[in-house]
Amino acid sequence: MNKLVRILRQLFYPHAHTLDSSGISFSPKFWLLIVFTGIGAGLGADFLMFLLSMVQHLSYHYAHGYFQVAAEHVSGLHRLGVLISAGVLATFAVWLLRKLSHGANSDVVHTIWFQSGSVNFWHTIAQAILSMTIVGMGASLGREGAPKQVGMAIASLLSRWGRLSSTETRFLAACGAGAGMGAVYNVPLGGALFALEVLLGSVTLPLLLPAITTALIATAVSWITLPDQPTYTLPIYTFHIGELYWSLLFGPLAGVMSVLFVRLIIWADLHKPQSGWFMWAPLLMFTLLGILSIPYPQLLGNGKDVTEFAFNSQLPLLLMLTLVVLKPLVTAGCLGSGAPGGLFTPSITYGAVLGGSMGDLWSLIWPGAAIGSYAVIGAGALLAATMQAPLAAIVLLLELTANTMGIMIPVLLAIVSAVFTARLLDKRSIYSGPAGIEPFIEQVSTHPVHTAFDDLITPSFQNIVPISASYSHLVKLMSTDDPPHNFYVVDHSGQLAGMIFSKNLRTADLLTRTLNVAAADDLKTPITAIRSDQSRKEVIDLLDQPYFSEMPVIDCVSKRYIGVVRSSSIICK
What we know:
Its main location: membrane. By secondary structure, this protein is mainly alpha-helical. The chain has helices at about 1-10, 30-60, 65-75, 75-100, 110-115, 120-135, 145-160, 165-185, 190-200, 205-220, 240-270, 280-295, 305-310, 315-335, 345-365, 370-385, 390-400, 410-425, 440-445, 470-480, 500-505, 510-515, 520-525, 535-545, 565-570, and strands at about 455-460, 465, 485-490, 495-500, 530, 550-555, 560-565.
């Protein structure tokens, strides 16, 4: 009883006591925004799923049952016509949104880490509606992308209204995105863990309660129109010893295949069309998908029904092997064309057909286990490895199926070995892979900017960090043998955004230091930089002042970081 009283007192009087031993507390205003974010994410999920059903009905005369069956019942030319229409819609809508929003980015991971969770509300809502529409028409993308964006947009709007700090805004945006996903798939705990482990990379107890609360509220609200039942229906599978030995072999294979898939998605994301005739890429890609759907209608949509068929041992071996090749290719193609959409369900589908096909072949050597059980194990392993989030994957698999405890030992074995293998080869996930500074460094090294003081510039890249760099990453850099005295922060295009002094890390607030929610963007301070068009004398005069022993140099046109000029270099010259 006393513990309950302490919790209630801490909730409503956060400055009197703390929520836990770490000293972290959230204000009543923050909790109020958590509630409103959950309600908004749940209502958004209801609307988006209604929109999906309407689009599927108009496109394929789908009313109930399996969407895959409805798509197969229409003619191949009908499917091609729908995909061409989706391509036209996507091409025009993507161009219009980019034109009206001046290039605003509504990608969830990019928004959370590069924009501190702040996003253009109406642009994000419009992109979510477009995403759900083209998925309903057959785009090989996940439906969870739209509700994540809606939940994030609502959280961003509420954060501005509540005047939250950038760190709190980032956290609330992640909670909103996870809540939207949890509401659509009826996976509240999985949605909360997705927000923490995948989007924030920090699963700590103080963060867990707000994330779970948001997802629970969103899921409960979504029950207004959405069913309160697991996403996938499958029989009760019992443990078979053959599954155990198969998992030992399949786990590393799943890790390798997940890395190939992640790299394919990253490449497609980095080569999205930006202007000119390339903006017609959605029409071309969707037309190609429509042609492929004539013999293989299983490629249409996010793959939910294909996954359930694989879970229930209802897919032939040759078809599964074909989908192992084609499904990731068309998913990457749709994403790379610039069309918005998610990657969650396509990843599960990829894992299900890969696991099902390998299990089918394994049953020729060691029969006895149901082919569907191998598909379930494969789905869990691929999902965990592509997300680089084993805990979230395990919980999501349990909530999505509500019926996998009988084979949990081989599932866990496959997940652990798949994630371990994937991290040995490439630590990037399917969501956070493109967020980095490496492409900028390569571009600077191959396209140097010439100045009147080239001999004074040191092209130092050891102490530059992207605005998305986490607090723990910065601390790790400071703990090296030769730590930098400061960091130069650059944005996703390489433009200098500010500087972080070492004292900023030591004096960061408790929320930042304990929970690792903050990024370099929250800790930076403005800084004066030398432009590439300045004269040599101006540079020397600046560094002759006592407070400027080192200054960064930027391109006068692009504002990109070039290097640093130190007063010691001038003395040597």
